[in-house]
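Lay summary

Proteins are chains of building blocks that fold into shapes. Our project writes down both the chain and a compact code for its shape. Here are two examples, one after the other.
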Amino acid sequence: MDLQELVNIWKNTDQELENKIKINKNLFKEVTVNKIRVMLGEFKWTNIVEICFNFVFLIYLIGFFIDHFSVLRYAIPSGILMLIMFYSLSFNIHMLKLFFRIDVKSSIVQNQKIVERLRYYNVLDTRMLYVIIPLFSTPFLIVMAKAFFDFNLYRLGQWLVMFSAGSFVVALIVVYLLRRFPDKKMQKAITFLSEISDFKGN
């Protein structure tokens, strides 16, 4: 066997090893991304369900708003509800877009940053309930009472004021419970990616 044949064998072996390393890296990233997506599966479907509900409810609200545009006591609460639905739709769509950016093409560090941003938005969304629950509850009752029972809820003035005040207490309780029992799967996903990143760094 001459020198050229030995060189050719060495090059082929080196190329095969390089190909195997690439395949293993791609397989590792694919397994990692799939695991993260499974961990965040509940988060994904929660956002999808909320988007569907908010979209349907928004369409209904637009119709209600148009029908009662000249009656301020119904136009204002339905307008408030529409703004909340627009916000919720935009927020959920943005969260879902971030979720689908977790893929094999991105590095482990990039995927880690995306999941951390999702956790941040999740915390922000929870804090926003302090405002959204009180802002949503009373207009929702006013619109639903009119839409389904043709009842003017403003007649129950004192009760309506008490209900509005009570919604602040409900918001405090809901936010407390959500902060007391956060999404553990999202935290596990961040920890998992962090451990992989540290391992690769070593």
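And here is the second example, written the same way.
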Amino acid sequence: MSTLEMIWDYINRFASVLTIFTVAFSGFAAWKLAQQSRRVRELARKTPPIKNFQELVNYHRGVQTSHPVALAISLIPQSVSIKGDVQRFLNTSGLKMNIEELSLDGINDPNDLEIFVNQLRTKRRELEAMQATEIHAFLAGPVVAGVILGAMFDNWIPVKLYHKPTPPPPSVYEYWMPLIKN
């Protein structure tokens, strides 16, 4: 056997051993991931419900701090502003606070989402500069906008969510709940 053949024979053996170790490691990793996934599903099934949910919702109802601000977000092409509806709700409910607006002519493509996210970030900074102590959020737009709002304003100051049911009541909006993390 020539030197070149011997070198190739050693390389071939090394590759075979390496393949065996790779298969064993991959099998072990797959087994560990399956175990972890099973544990996570088990924990999710055992997660207790929020026991004081209604109490928490009622606790946050109304104005409770010194400088609340209403945030009126309109992201639908049919309505440039929902400020009038929000003002009517605040007047009917006896809530006194400034209204900050954020408006877009609909969310039509990813560029509009980027504009919305950047405007929302800017609005949050403005609210921080105003020293807002709680936010009352009113939104007319797609569900994804509400998810983005919740993600950007979570773990900040109290944010209270309002809903406009169909058909709307005379006061236009209903308080639903605060953004909570439990």
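What can we say about the second shape? The longest strand covers residues 68-74.
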